[in-house]
Specification:
Elements lengths: L2 H7 L1 H15 L8 H5 L2 H13 L4 H8 L12 H11 L4 H22 L4 H61 L6 H28 L9 E4 H15 L5 E5 L4 E4 L1 H18 L6 E7 L3 E9 L5 H6 L13 H4 L5 H11 L3 E7 L2 E9 L3
Parallel strand pairs: 2-4
Antiparallel strand pairs: 1-3, 4-5, 5-7, 6-7
Length: about 375
């Protein structure tokens, strides 16, 4: 008997054994019904049997074994549904994969008790393992996406809930700063206010990150404006925030257009802060705004050791920590600044590119005048 026929004829016994094992994998303290544990296991077995009956060339088999099976069109697969619902039920990723491992062993053990293996059987086993591996891959994709979605929801809810008490802290600190001017407590009050404002910015960055990871595009409010003088104002704020760093600013003509000036200033602030932190001590940070008929280009540059290609590729990754040379506070920061720069540029229909050569690292934001 071929393996596909055996699976079809014994699916109930196979599924029953799989349910017994799945019950041992369920999260502690969670009672799942037989229906919930059964999930889409019968459909997964049906799909595996159908795959075994499908003609497959040597090249197709090689591609599939290397994880390059063609994308499936049509409705969601049973394995994908299984992965998502197991995530919702609280299964760990190892527990879900263990289900497939047990299912694989159960099928092969039962079949070996009924069948004397032949040359065709060896091919069936190879094809069966490929089909199970494909099902595992489909389940993992949906499982990971579901877990990531809930992670972002949790972070967003946490950030939102922290806003209230943090607002009270900042408001109170602002009052203390005013009341303690010229007294020995003035410096301490200013530190509280500065820390509160920094936490507010971090929360704002975190909420923007969560929104983007949940599929919500960054919202921008376009208005006709001239970016040259507006970015000049932002550079002045950077100078005040980083008194030990010299910021050079240049602006040409034709820097006007329809942009969200607040978001663009945020991007420049993030790039300027990054350049001040990681640039070589005692060197300048350059900020330049230039425009042409098609776009406005903003460049922020700093001096320092050149970055490797690997470092350049990961600069805009979210939640990236600072470099090994950064201070403890910088290494523990969320590292969302450059990620948000990329999102702001993308929301305007543009992009951002980083280059590092001859001791100069440059970040260039391109903003189309119309998109």
């Amino acid at each position: 008997m071929r393996l596909a026929d055996f699976i079809d004829g014994n699916s109930e016994e196979i599924v029953a054994r799989a349910i017994v094992f799945a019950r041992t994998q369920a999260p502690a303290g969670v009672e799942l019904s037989t229906k919930e544990l059964r999930n889409h296991l019968p459909q997964i077995l049906t799909a595996v049997a159908a795959d075994l009956r499908t003609e497959q060339s040597d090249q197709e088999q090689l591609a599939k074994s290397e994880g390059h099976a063609p994308d499936l069109d049509g409705p969601e697969t049973a394995a994908s549904f299984h992965g998502r619902t197991r995530a919702r039920a609280g299964f760990g990723i190892n527990q879900m994969v263990a289900e497939y491992r047990a299912l694989r062993a159960s099928v092969l053990r039962l079949w070996s008790n009924h069948e004397a293996f032949s040359a065709a059987s060896i091919n069936d086993i190879v094809r069966f393992n490929e089909a199970i591996d494909q099902a595992v891959a489909e389940s993992l994709v949906e499982y990971s996406a579901e877990v990531e979605s809930w992670r972002q929801i949790f972070l967003g809810a946490l950030g939102h809930d922290l806003r209230g008490p943090l607002t009270a802290v900042v408001f109170t600190a602002d009052v203390l700063v005013e009341k303690t001017r010229g007294t020995p407590l003035a410096r301490q009050a200013e530190r509280i206010l500065s820390g509160g404002l920094r936490m507010t910015r971090l929360l704002d960055d975190l909420l923007e990150y969560c929104k983007s990871k949940l599929g919500a595009a960054m919202e921008i409010n376009r208005e006709q404006c001239d970016l040259g003088p507006l970015i000049g104002e932002e550079v002045e704020l950077l100078r005040a925030a980083h008194p030990d760093t010299t910021f050079r600013f240049e602006s040409s003509e034709h820097t006007d257009g329809s942009f969200d000036a607040s978001r663009i200033r945020e991007a420049v602030h993030n790039l300027g802060t990054n350049a001040a932190k990681y640039g070589q001590a005692g060197t300048d940070v350059g900020v330049k705004v230039a425009g042409n008929a098609d776009e406005v280009r903003i460049t922020v540059s700093n001096s320092g050791a050149p970055l490797t290609d690997a470092a350049l590729q990961s600069l805009f990754d979210p939640l990236r920590r600072g470099s090994a040379d950064a201070s403890k506070d910088e290494r523990l920061s969320l590292g969302l600044g450059l990620y948000l720069v990329r999102e702001i540029a993308a929301a305007h229909g543009g992009g951002v590119k980083a280059t590092s050569a001859d001791g100069i690292t440059r970040f260039a934001i391109s903003l189309p005048r119309s998109s």
